[in-house]
Amino acid sequence: ASIGDLIRHPDPTFSFEFFPPRNAEGEQVLWQTIRELEQLRPSFVSVTYGAGGTTRDLTVEVTERLATETTMLPMAHLTAVDHSVRELRHVVGRLASAGVRNILAVRGDPKSGVNGEWIKHPEGVLYAEDLVRLVKESGDFSVGVAAFPYKHPRSRDVEEDTKFFVRKMKAGADFAITQMFFDADDYLRLRDRVAAAGCEAPIVPCIMPVVAMGTIARSAELSGAPFPPALAAEFEKVAADPAAVRRLGIDQAGELCQKLLREGAPGIHFITFNRSTATREVWQNITGVRAHAA
Ligand code: FAD
């Protein structure tokens, strides 16, 4: 199935994001999580692409296993960092032969971090836009791209950010998934400015529930913007009680999802950090259905 088509369907999609495990223990945790979340029958699941070396092979391996050993529809993330066009085509070919037909084409960040100098591989591609074209030319793929509610840190302003986002869609992308954010208005502003630029891209919001105060501290790093101050104040009130922080985080994420869906968001993409509990709780909050874990 094409994720682009699912996202364009009137029923909202629900999807989960995993990262390739770093060791045997991580692998066990991931597969336990996958089995638990499979019971929620998500529309699709995605696996991020690592920064280099073996974790990249693992992205392909996990995605292949998802395609062949589970009932879920997998999407592989792919980045352009340190890859020649030939290598990129090889990865895309491997995914295709495992039956993976959905790819999230993102440029990736340099190893030195999000603001480090981005150096193109001498035989590689420069922007996500070029990666979208490469994947589209390689076969019948549904391709997603990244969208940034607070603009990408490298973009001068939101106008420039919107212009390049629209170019990426015009290069052949079928849908977009956002960077995580915590205030529905930030998503709605992104959607409005993309629509005002004449682009009808379906943009799926990405949500990560706060389960500890540390998430708030890392918000700028994770989302590209400080945590909304009014919401931070609510968390501060219960900061001494980790269980209360978690409860508030789950409730707040549930309310955010409900608002986004009421406002017509085409679905919700959950960052899971390879754990199932918080995601299941938010899910339950949205659907009102208690999910049964194995
Ligand atoms: P691009 O769209 O290429 O944009 C990068 C910058 O260049 C922007 O500032 C843009 O405005 C500018 N730009 C674009 N086109 C042009 C042009 N023609 N001329 C001049 N400037 C231009 N990273 C990973 O390593 N692995 C992952 O699996 C991964 N998954 C992600 C999933 C999602 C949903 C999101 C939101 C991000 C993900 N990332 C991942 C992070 C992503 O790789 C970084 O945020 C990266 O810095 C930007 O990627 P992009 O695809 O938006 O880049």
Brief characterization of the structure:
Belongs to the methylenetetrahydrofolate reductase family. With 294 residues, the chain is of the alpha/beta class.
Keywords summarizing the entry:
294 residues; alpha/beta; 12 helices; 9 strands; 14% strand; disordered C terminus; binds flavin-adenine dinucleotide
What report would you give on this structure?
This is Methylenetetrahydrofolate reductase. Its EC number is 1.5.1.54. This protein has helices at residues 3-8, 24-38, 54-69, 85-97, 128-137, 158-170, 184-196, 213-217, 219-223, 229-237, 242-262, 277-287; strands at 13-18, 44-47, 74-79, 102-106, 142-147, 175-178, 203-204, 206-207, 267-271. Helix 5 runs parallel beside helix 6 and helix 11 crosses helix 12. The longest helix is centred in the last third of the chain and has 21 residues, at 242-262. The chain is built from twelve helices and nine strands. The two termini are 27 Å apart. It is of the alpha/beta class and 294 residues long. A nine-stranded parallel β-sheet has the order 7-6-5-4-3-2-1-9-8. Bound molecules: flavin-adenine dinucleotide. Flavin-adenine dinucleotide (FAD) binds at residues 48-49, 51, 77, 79, 104, 106-109, 114, 127-129, 145-146, 152, 154-155, 160-161, 164, 167-168, 177, 179, 206.
Count the DSSP helices. 12
Order of SSEs, N→C?
HEHEHEHEHEHEHEEHHHHEH
Unreliable stretches covering 5 or more consecutive residues: 290-294
The multimeric state of the shown protein is single chain
User: How many strands, which pairing sense, and closed or not: the largest β-sheet?
Assistant: 9 strands, parallel
Q: What hetero molecules are in the model?
A: flavin-adenine dinucleotide
Radius of gyration: 18 Å
Give the total of beta strands: 9
Which descriptor suits the 3D outline?
A: globular
Order of the strands making up the biggest sheet: 7-6-5-4-3-2-1-9-8
